[in-house]
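Quick start: what a row looks like.
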Amino acid sequence: MLAAGIVLSVVNFFVSAKYGQPAGPNPWNADTLEWSTSSPPPPYGSVHIPTVQSRHPLWDTHDEEYDPEDARVLDRERMTISTTWLDARPVALAKMPEDSIWPLVLSLAISAIAALVLVRSLWWTLAPIVVGLAVTALWLWPKEEKHAQ
C-alpha cells in the first residue's frame, strides 16, 4: 500500500509538471495576506508594510498596500509592524533579527546530541551539549544597538 501511494504521488507529480496549469496567486480564494502576493513570490515580500482592517484582509474593501506618502516603506532596517492580536491595530515597530549562522550551528549540535544518544556514547554527548549551550548564549545574548546619526 505504501509503495502504491508513493508511485501514485510520483506519477501525479510528473503528469502535473507536464500537463498541469500553473496555479495563480490565490487558487483557493483564501482570505489571508500570504495569498495576496504573486506566484512565485518576490524575494522582498511586500514593498509597503501592509495594514489590515479585519480578520479577513483579502475579502474586505480595505487596500492593505495603500501608502501614498511612503510612510510604511522601511528600507533601512528589517522592521515590521506589531499589532494587537485580535483586531490587528498597529501598536509598535518590531525590529526583526539579522541573518545569523547560529541557528544552523545549534541544529547541528542538537543533531550530534541525538546521534550520540542513539549509539549510547553518553560521555561524548557532553561535548555537543556544551557547544549547544554556548551557541545558544551567543545567539540570544543582547547586542548593542547601532544608532544612525
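That is the whole record. Strands lie at 79-83, 90-95. The mean pLDDT is 85.
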